[in-house]
Design a protein that fits this description.
With about 270 residues, this protein is of the alpha+beta class. Helix content is about 50%, strand content about 20%. Helix 1 packs antiparallel against helix 2 and helix 5 packs across helix 6. The longest helix has about 45 residues. The radius of gyration is 35 Å and the shape is rod-shaped. It starts with a helix and ends in a 20-residue tail after the last helix.
Length: about 270
């Protein structure tokens, strides 16, 4: 008798809810297929825009989850579950979570803004809000900069969006100078500097370096040397160029004068 009752209960359940179950399964299957297809389309679209792989994967997963979540709500509706109160409850919970995590959401929105507008890319050298460095990572929550001393600066993305930023790109211009004596051969000095820049592999040929007289100082002629180098070569190139200038000037007898002062004592009678 007990087995018969169980059989009757199961049969009654399937007669009553059979179509709802089949409909819910179909909705979930179709929803999953649509989510997968739109996920692939989203991935292709983001790939064309050269989005970083971690961010691209995250956005594709968000699209899939949203579509599958919609399909799940429609499936629950087939069983007579009231969706409206459920959506209202989720909305209230979402508002509460949003208020509790304003900083986090602000960073995410700012990160998406940076990713899509691309004011800078990984590898470029930027400066903003008295912070500077080479961009090594752009994530949803923060952006990481690398200093020449290999220290890192992690900036929350909401601190970046809306700020005035100086983007140097992938190259930087050195600002070097050297003084030569007034009696030195100026043309020889300039030719020597150009030769040093031409032979240094870190110095870029395009754009061309700027070399010329920038000042007539008290005891020397100041020559400014402004070559272009890639961001990682900024520090090493400066050291190499200065070293080569000292060596070449010594070899060619081009004097780099010391600062000189003439002191006169008033009131003394000259002999």
């Amino acid at each position: 008798m007990q087995v018969q009752q169980w059989q009757n209960t199961i049969v009654t359940f399937f007669i009553t809810y059979g179509f709802q179950i089949v409909g819910a399964v179909i909705i979930l299957v179709v929803g999953g297929l649509i989510a997968r297809s739109l996920g692939r389309l989203t991935d292709k679209w983001l790939t064309k825009h050269h989005l970083e792989p971690p961010i691209r994967l995250l956005l594709v997963r968000v699209v899939k989850l949203l579509l599958f979540g919609l399909a799940l709500l429609l499936a629950l509706d087939k069983f007579g579950v009231q969706i409206t109160p459920l959506i209202a409850g989720l909305s209230v919970a979402g508002v509460g979570i949003g208020l509790a995590a304003q900083g986090v959401l602000g960073n995410v929105l700012a990160g998406l803004t940076i990713i899509f507008t691309k004011p800078f890319r990984v590898g470029e050298y930027i400066e903003l809000a008295s912070v500077y460095g080479q961009v090594t990572a752009i994530e949803l929550f923060s952006t990481t900069l690398l200093h020449s001393d290999h220290s890192r600066v992690v900036i929350p993305n909401r601190k970046i969006v809306g700020e005035i930023m100086h983007n140097y790109g992938g190259i930087r211009q050195l600002s070097l100078s050297v003084g030569i004596a007034y009696g030195a051969n100026l043309k020889d000095a300039l030719a020597t500097i150009h030769q040093i820049l031409d032979t240094n592999p870190r110095v870029l040929k395009d754009p061309a370096a700027v070399v010329g007289i920038s000042a007539l100082a008290d005891s020397s002629i100041t020559i400014s040397i402004c070559p272009w180098v890639k961001v990682p070569d900024f520090g090493p190139a400066q050291l190499e160029i200065y070293e080569a200038i000292v060596e070449q000037f010594r070899a060619r007898k081009i004097e780099i004068p010391f600062r000189q002062y003439e002191v006169r004592l008033l009131g003394q009678v000259s002999g």
